[in-house]
Design a protein that fits this description.
2 domains; MetI-like fold; about 55% helix; 15 helices
């Protein structure tokens, strides 16, 4: 799609041929033909649902810590017991500690003489569904006396599965909020710069170059390190989101500027000027909407970068802090090489980061191709 005029002409031709599909329908039809895009969308939806319903998906209280359950490895769910008998209902064996005679380190082993059945839609600990509705219903749980840690536990005895799902709330919402702020700044300045040109364009582009002159990672680290330690959770969340947005808008501003430069001399923009349309109307009614497909693609491709930046800063201890939790904060346990060599399951939150980055990248690539349904296949 080179210009809005050419897109309108192609739409008119399709309508003359009896094709009554709208632009959105054409985009969706092309998007769903790409299996990688569908996979990316499903990953994003799955991670979002896991974050929203973290309490429902966790059989153990997310905020409960108990040192007696520290560093329990992931428990295996069985359908066949030690005697070879098959059970339709899944079960887990009791976990007990033994002392390794060589390393003198406590290790967890299954006691095959005690097994606990896994049940679905059970009622155990109370929480508020999506923060509003009190309930104690959970997707799965184990009989009283047993434990079920799908991804194991950390040094405080907290269930890594539940904490990783909960951490997705901060990691995903912060990356989305920071990206939206970045998109809002970059797209508006890009449209204004491209439309007016001249001195306004020169000033804005020199400002963009000035911002780009700062190395992103060191500046992020410097800004994150000055966040007040006494600040409340919401304040820290907002400050960190704006820090990530600070240096992320410049690339979009230049890309949108280039697109607007190609659109401002088209017939429909010139006609709007001749009819007396104000600059604000031309910018927000005609130019800005024609960049939204591009902005949407940049949105999905920027989120993974923010997730990685937040994870890196939190891993170093200058990002998200307790009582908030994020995927990056959960990976801080992996800083200890001795612990990492003996309790490898503490790296499980890295898998959530990996899937989130891949999911958004797949989704962004699919949207980028589908946003121009009139391009050659």
């Amino acid at each position: 799609m080179e210009t809005e005029l050419s897109m309108a002409a192609l739409q008119a031709q399709l309508l003359q041929k009896g094709n009554t599909e709208s632009y959105v329908q054409l985009v969706w039809r092309r998007f769903k033909r790409n299996p990688i895009s569908i996979i990316g969308a499903l990953i994003v939806i799955m991670l979002t649902m896991m974050a929203i319903f973290a309490d429902f998906l966790s059989p153990t209280s997310i905020d409960r810590d108990s040192l007696k359950f520290a560093f329990i490895p992931p428990q295996q769910v069985h359908f066949i017991d030690a005697e070879g008998k098959f059970s339709l209902r899944p079960f887990v064996y009791a976990f007990e500690t033994t002392l390794d005679p060589k390393t003198f380190q406590p290790t967890w082993v299954e006691n095959t003489k005690k097994k606990y059945m896994v049940h679905f839609f059970v009622r155990t600990w109370e929480y508020k569904l999506i923060g509003l509705f009190p309930t104690n219903l959970h997707l799965f749980g184990v009989e009283e006396g047993g434990t079920l840690f799908v991804l194991g536990t950390d040094k405080l005895g907290r269930d890594l599965w539940g904490k990783a799902c909960q951490a997705g709330r901060v990691s995903l919402s912060m990356s989305l909020f920071g990206t939206i702020v970045s998109i809002a700044i970059g797209s508006v300045l890009g449209v204004v710069s491209g439309y007016y040109g001249g001195r306004i364009d020169d000033v804005l582009q020199r400002f963009v170059e000035f911002i780009n002159a700062f190395p992103q990672l060191p500046l992020w680290m410097a800004l994150a390190s000055i966040v007040p330690k006494t600040a409340d959770s919401f304040t820290v969340f907002v400050i960190m989101a704006f820090i990530f947005a600070l240096l992320s808008w410049t690339t979009l501003a230049r890309e949108v500027r280039g697109k607007v430069l190609s659109l401002r001399q088209t017939d429909f923009i010139l006609a709007a000027k001749e009819m007396g349309a104000s600059d604000a109307r031309i910018i927000f009614k005609h130019l800005y909407p024609n960049t939204l497909s591009h902005v949407l693609v940049i949105l999905t491709l920027t989120i993974p970068g923010v997730i990685l930046a937040e994870s890196f800063l939190s891993f170093l201890g200058i990002g998200i802090q307790e009582p908030l939790t994020s995927w990056g904060l959960l990976t801080r346990n992996a800083q200890n090489l001795q612990t990492l060599s003996q309790q490898t399951w503490i790296m499980a939150p890295i898998g959530f980061i990996l899937f989130a980055v891949l999911g958004f990248n797949f989704l962004g690539d699919g949207l980028r191709d589908a946003a121009d349904p009139y391009a050659s296949r």
